[in-house]
Amino acid sequence: MVAIRNEIDKVADSPASVLITGPSGSGKDVAAQLLHQKSRRAGAPYIALNCAAVAADLLESEMFGHEAGAFTGATRARTGRFEAAHTGTLFLDEVGDMPLAMQAKLLRALETRVVERVGGMIPITVEVRLISATSVDLLAAIDRGLFRSDLLYRLDVIRIEMPPLADRPQDIPLLVEHFCLTAGAPPIRFEKAAMALLMDHPWAGNVRELKNFVERTRAHHPGEVITRDALPRLLRPTGASVVGGSVVGGSATRVTETMNDVLGGTLPPMTLPQLDPGHGVDLRQLIADLEQAYIRAALSACGGTIAGSARLLGLQRTTLIEKMRRLHITPSA
């Protein structure tokens, strides 16, 4: 992390585009903000847009703005994120989830430094420093035809790679101390044995999961010294999960119960049909039904966001998007 901070110090004033990579929850947005704060643009706007959190048909308007009457509901003109970030920094989070049609428009804007509002014909010159972030393997996405290689070359001028928390367990005590101090009164403290257990935990959700754990611990044990014995009730279980669209780690009923705990009880009861020599099962339909139920439940629990749903389901965002298209599921489903 010291090396990453040094790299940020060196490139902060460069106008070149920066691509920040790393798993979800590893601090990509923090790195982007630090790049802006360390630059000469620190006094100018810092505008962020999560590409995975905006419906595909609204993303162009969010990015470039729109004129009054451009589409149903556009009762007045609106400035886009590019215009709002003029002379400052534009941060595009989860850029790997951007639809291909929008990728072409972003590429043109980066090449010309000119944007046009939806429904408008007047070119608007913008001067922004672009920082983008993704937890998607963009080279693999290019191979699958989901991301443009020419756009990657535009975004990936300077790359900063954020490592997963599991690769830097020595940072965990420092991060825990920081979160304990910033979480507000009353403070908590961890015994040495408890901290050792935290350093051995996999932290699949990375720094974000660690921060949530500290907040949860403080809520349950305000002002206390946390022992090792208290941790099993506070750490999230890592047993049953859904990986690559398949159920792993137990029966369908038990996995459904576990997922219902996470998703707030939005999954219907599920039981696997028994195989009988006289009656087969439609395995393809069974898998499709399971995928439908889990994806819809995850979308419901995450307010329709692709990024959050993919994290719940243990999928890459591009994989989830492909499944949703195949199953005709929309983010609002």
The helix tally amounts to 14
The residue ranges in which pLDDT falls below 50 over 5 or more consecutive positions are 239-255
Total domain units: 3
What is the CATH homology-level superfamily of the largest domain?
Answer: P-loop containing nucleotide triphosphate hydrolases
Major sheet attributes? 5 strands, parallel
Could you report the average pLDDT, rounded to the nearest whole number? 85
Helix content bin: 40-55%
Rg over alpha carbons: 23 Å
In the CATH hierarchy, what is the class of the largest domain?
A: Alpha Beta
Q: How many beta-strand segments?
A: 13
The 3D shape can be described as: globular
Distance between the termini: 40 Å
Class by alpha and beta content:
alpha/beta
In CATH terms, what is the architecture of the largest domain? Answer: 3-Layer(aba) Sandwich
Which fold name fills CATH's third level, the topology of the largest domain? Answer: Rossmann fold
- Range of strand content: 5-15%
Report the order of strands and helices.
HEHEHEEHEHEEEHHEHEHHEEEHHHH
Q: Going across the major beta sheet, what is the strand order?
A: 2-5-8-1-9
What can be said about this structure in brief?
The chain has 333 residues and is an alpha/beta fold. 43% of the residues lie in helices and 13% in strands. Strand 6 and strand 7 form a beta hairpin.
